[in-house]
Design goal:
By secondary structure, this protein is an alpha+beta fold. It has ten helices and seven strands.
Length: about 350
């Protein structure tokens, strides 16, 4: 291929397109992979020639590539609301209609997610009857799982069904996170009951911060979807509407499980705080007992150590043992009073 023609082609391919798929309506065949050039050609020619064919595209972009936004503005007729959401970079969940399209801002865990970093990133979505655009800056687990499902033969019948699959995949990923968190909480609970670990509060605090952050970012999603389904776009079928409603209900159940787990972690934190408080009280009681038991001997030692005239028993041959007996007697009385006070508290 001549250099004059290869450079434009390479420039067209290097637009940050992670994957592109064409889904055929009513076709049992799996989705066909598309390049950036094929997608641009379909958007410019095929969609205009066959507006009612039912075929649609899913294009997934990496916004870290500066060419992605330029390619979308050049080839995809997306509403300005979508580009405004990209420019703002807001991570708050939203789902709204815009010029006959749906614009969504969803949050998901990173592909390299772990319980230490708890990284969460944003996915921007714009879809209509013929086109689904998803864009992200960091790899996400849900989208990667959806890509794998499409690659293995999963073929949604409409753009709305593709969004439904994405939401269900997102819920599945979060369910796995909740399950792993629950397993860790179970282990910590066993450690707390056995009192083998002196640092369960740090582990519980880290897990609770993870769940709070996830719920804060994901909780608005079912409500936003519910408001959308009250006035869906005209091209959304009743079947697609019911599918989104079911996916939203599953997502709500997952959020409730997450809230239940947060409550359990809070109770465990209170239990740990009670154990720590009990240990502190025990240590304080031991310190008080030592102070009380040492009080008689300190008082007598101070009195007899003043080296002034008239110190009793100074010339007595058994004076030392008499003083020791007095100290032992007072110490025994103090110990008996302290033990009696402890028994009354119990």
């Amino acid at each position: 291929m001549p250099e004059s023609t290869s450079l434009p082609v390479l420039a067209l391919e290097d637009v940050g397109l992670i994957c592109g798929w064409r889904f055929a309506c009513g076709d049992s065949e799996p989705a066909a992979a598309l390049s950036a050039a094929d997608a641009a050609d379909w958007l410019a020619r095929d969609a205009a020639e066959h507006p009612h064919s039912g075929d649609f595209l899913w294009l997934h972009f990496n916004l870290a590539n500066a060419q992605s936004l330029r390619w979308l503005q050049r080839h995809a007729a997306l509403p300005e609301v979508f580009y405004a959401a990209l420019r703002e970079g807001l991570a708050s969940t939203r789902l709204e209609r815009a010029e006959g399209s749906l614009v969504a801002v969803l949050n998901d865990v990173n592909f390299e997610f772990d319980f230490e970093s708890a990284d969460i990133a944003t996915l921007w979505i714009c879809l209509d009857e013929r086109l689904v655009i998803t864009a992200r800056t960091q790899p996400l687990r849900s989208v990667d799982a959806l890509r794998a499902a499409v690659r293995s033969g999963d073929s949604p019948a409409s753009t709305t069904e593709l969004l439904e699959h994405l939401m269900r995949t997102q819920a599945d990923v979060l369910v796995k996170v909740v399950r792993e968190t629950t397993a860790r909480v179970d282990e910590i609970e066993d450690v707390i009951l056995a009192r083998r670990d002196s640092r369960p509060r740090a582990h519980l605090g880290r897990l609770r911060r993870l769940l709070v952050r996830l719920q804060r970012l994901l909780a608005p999603e079912p409500a936003a979807l519910f408001r959308l389904l009250q006035q869906p776009p005209g091209w959304m079928s009743e079947r697609d509407r019911q599918g989104l409603a079911a996916a939203s209900e599953e997502f709500s159940l997952m959020l409730r499980d997450m809230q239940t787990l947060q409550d359990r972690i809070r109770l465990l934190q209170e239990e740990v705080a009670a154990i720590v408080n009990e240990d502190n009280n025990r240590s304080l009681f031991v310190l008080t007992m030592v102070t009380v038991l040492a009080l008689p001997i300190n008082i007598l030692a101070g009195l007899f150590g003043m080296n002034v005239g008239g110190i009793p028993l100074a010339e007595h041959p058994d004076g030392f043992w008499i003083v020791v007996s007095i100290v032992v007697a007072f110490t025994a009385v103090a110990a008996w009073l302290a033990h009696r006070h402890k028994q009354r508290q119990v």
